[in-house]
Amino acid sequence: MIRRISPFELHIDDADLQDLRDRLARTRWPETFPDTDWSYGTDRDYLRGLCEYWRTEFDWRRCEARLNGFGQVAMDVDGQRLHAIHAKSAEPNAMPLLLVHGWPGSVFEFDKVVEPLRDPAAHAGRASDAFHVVCPSIPGYGFSGPTHRIGWNPRRISSAFAELMESLGYRQYVAAGGDWGAITTTDLARSPAGRGLRALYLTMPLGDPLPDATDPQEGLTDSERKGLQDWAAHQSAGRVMHHPLNSTRPHTMTFAMNDSPAGLAAWLVDMWRSFTDCGGDLERVVSRDELLANITSYWFTGTIASAARLYVEWAEQKRTSPPPPRVTIPTGCALYPGDVRRIPRAWAERAYEIVQWREMPAGGHFPSVEVPELFVEDLRAFFRRFR
Fold first, then answer.
1. How far apart are CA 191 and CA 335, in angstroms?
2. Is pLDDT of 235 > 90?
3. CATH number for the domain including 146?
4. What backbone phi and psi angles, to 5 degrees, belong to 214?
5. Handedness of CA 295, 300, 305, 308 (dihedral sign)
């Protein structure tokens, strides 16, 4: 069934922009200990400066113009809006690419890479590497809006992505993503809905050790052990949404973040800083405007609660579903040294038919923002073999 798809143009009302500025001006800042910096979480002085910039200088209209310039669409899937960037290439043999963001990001993650992917000849590439780029907002995130009923788990989302690609006229396509982008495209590759999916490219592949392994880390390299140690540290610090509170009672914390833009920024900034390859200096790799474009997309759409709910949905899907089948389509993986979760290749090979495995020299959880040239070139190189 092909559903109706319509052009979409982003425009936030002036009154909502002014409300954001007013709320930022009225922020009640907490007292903190002197010289604690980031040791207790988000640094108050950094956040205060960021919020003042957000209130007085950040240009949301430029962000709107950027997305509108790419081209956008929206469709209804069982009462849920599904929004996507749809950046068509002028190249006649361009390959359709489903490119999916993760947490705590949005379609703004791909701001730097959409044009190089759809028009490579204008960006130090070859015309034969062109893509028709489709970047959906995950239901419950950003411009797809909040989810309105239980059941929007990765399986339902991946099915909606398949409907989106079919509605756009793409019966054969490839897919890429990290974080939720990796989870949902992996689910798509495992399901009948993904019959048009030809190949998969992941920056945070899934995988687990053998369930009966005496020592799950036996035979791992030092680099692989470091990846597992980093993931455990993020979990124990509560920086990832897999934290028990987020997977059981996600609304508890999101009331505050949905009401206070400074509170929302505090939560998201801490994770962006922790998940990037920045050495503690976030703005060394992510500009204020890039950071605020993502944060503001959560604010205006009121999606911080539904974004958190997806972790509950995924936990329930895993609890009630049989062990998933192995992905049999060709899969390429790129592990970035600052990413939040980096699993050993042997674990990933239990889940995927891996034909390319790269350990990248720089970058973290948001490679399309942090190291866009590396991201684009590796993605191009992998999919070149399927043209």
1. 25
2. no
3. 3.40.50.1820
4. -65, -45
5. negative
